Amino acid sequence: MxxxxxxxxxxxxxYTYSMLQLSGALLNRPVLSLxxxxxxxxxxxxxxxxxxxxxxxxxCQDSKERKKQLVLLYQDIRDLIPQGMVVNDHDSLVEPSExxxxxxxxxxxxxxxxxxxxxxSGSKLGKVADYATETTTMFVQKIYVTQSLLKNLTGGxxxxxxxxxxxxxxxxxxxxxLAGTIPARAGAMA
Length: 190
Description:
By secondary structure, this protein is mainly β.
């Protein structure tokens, strides 16, 4: 338990820097109690608000009652350490029905991965394979698109910044048209 407090004490220094984490670093992670120093739950799925791409919290599997699904709100996370997410205690986990303000978001059951990504002009780019979240604000900053096999051979995977996103629907994410590349032999203008 002492090690948990020592690691948490360094958070004030690292907290001032924003850090991007891929979804895999936030999902299927232990939720640790600062009070008891034990695992109280495991994160399972992010609760993402599609209106602003903010991770509002996580669905968690309770360690006490394995079949019970609880919600951990992002503001209740005290620290992110290599061992998992640190919260005050088990009371930080709540029943989904108790979250009155988030009921509309919970009802959407929005998931980012697997959504088709298209441009405004209608070009299909692929599907969202992963996303990166800024851990200080919990906003999704980038989505990573896996392109079709033909496009993948020529262009690789595509990273899309949140500023390029125009619209998010239930089935797809619409982004700005990609800028054309400048030919390598184009000369500079004086």
